[in-house]
Amino acid sequence: MAMAHLISSPNVSSLSTAVTVPSSESESEASNFKNIVDSVKNFMAVLYQFIYPYVMYGRALLPSLFLDLYVNGVNQVFDFEIDKINKPYLPLASGKLSFRNCVFIVASSAIMGLGLNLMIGSTALIWNFVLCATLWTCYSANTFVLKRPLVLTRSLIVTLLFLTFYATGLSLAKDIPDVEGDIKHGVDSFSARLGQKKVFWISVFLYEIAFAVAFLAGASSSSPFWIKFVTCLGNVVLGSILWYQTKYVDVTNPASTRSFYSLNWKGFDCWRLETDITRANDRG
After folding, report:
1. Are residues 137 and 200 both part of a single domain?
2. Measured CA angle at 275 (ends 203, 151), to 5 deg
3. 156 and 283 fall within a common domain
C-alpha cells in the first residue's frame, strides 16, 4: 500500500513531468533550428531564381561586376595607409566608408562572384574568377607586406600554368562517372554533351600537358643539375604512371573512373611534394 501510494503521489507525478520537460524543450529547439535552416534554403532558392534569368543574358556580366568590386576593394583595403597620402579622395581613405564595411563589401563580392559562376557552371568562368582574384589578392597583399610590387617569377608562372591545365582536367574528369544521373536530371555537363570517352581523353591530355610544362621548366631552369634531374625525372614518372593506367580504365564503369580520378589527385599531391622539396633545396 505504501508503495502504491508513493507511485500515485503528486510528488512523483511532478517529478515525472519535470523529467520530460527537457526532452520537450530539446525537441522544440531542434524544430526551431530546422525551421531556420529551411528558411535559409528557401531564401537561397528564391535568390537563385531571381538572379539566374538575368545571368543567362550576359553569362559573365554580374560575376565580372563582383570581380571588379573585389579587385578594387581588396587593393584599397591593403593600401589603406598609402591611399591616405596618394589618393585621399577614395571612399576608404577619406573616411566615407569604414574599414569594417569595406572588408564586408570585399568579402561579399568574392562570395557572390564565385557563387554566380558556380551557378552558371562554366569551368572557364570559374577558373578565370579564381585566378584573377588570387593574383590581385597576392599583388595587393605583397605590396602591403613587403612594400614592393609583386614580381611574376618564373616558378610562379610555371605553377599557375600547371594548375590551370591540371585543375581543368580534374574538373572535367569529376563528371565522367556521374553522366547517367546528369542526363536523367538535365544537367548539361561536358561528359553528357561530348561523351564520357572523349572527355576522359581530354582530361588525360590536360594532365600530360601540365606535366610537360613542369618538365620543360625544370629542364631549362638555372638550378643545380641534381634539382633539374629530380624535377624532370619526377614529372616523367608521374606522367608515365598516369598514361599507363589509362588502359585499365573503363569509362562506362563509374567505379573505374572514380578510381582513376582518385589516382589523378594522388599524382597532383606527388607533384606538389616534389616541387616543394626541390624548391626548398634550390639555392640557384
Report:
1. no
2. 95
3. yes
Give the contacts of 144 (CB within 8 A, at least 6 positions apart). 78, 79
Residues 162, 284 share a domain: yes
Confidence of residue 148 (pLDDT cuts 50, 70, 90): low
- Residue 211 has which C-alpha cell? 606535366
Q: Which residue has the cell 589603406?
A: 80
Cα dihedral 245/251/254/256 (nearest 10): -20
Q: 205 and 101 in one domain?
A: no
- Tally the domains of the chain: 2
**Among 207, 209, 269, 231, which residue's Cα sits nearest to residue 155?**
231
CA distance 284 to 221: 9
Distance CA 127, CA 186 (A): 24
pLDDT of 225 higher than 80: yes
Average pLDDT in the chain: 75
For the cut 80, the answer to whether the pLDDT of residue 4 exceeds it is no
The residue among 148, 172, 192 that closes a domain is 148
The whole domain housing 158 covers 152-284
In a domain, 205, yes or no: yes
Q: pLDDT per residue over 92-123, tens digit each?
A: 888 887 888 888 888 888 888 887 777 766 66
Q: CA 119 to CA 115: how far, in whole Å?
A: 6
Give dist(CA 98, CA 238) in Å, integer.
Answer: 50
Residue 258 lies in a domain: yes
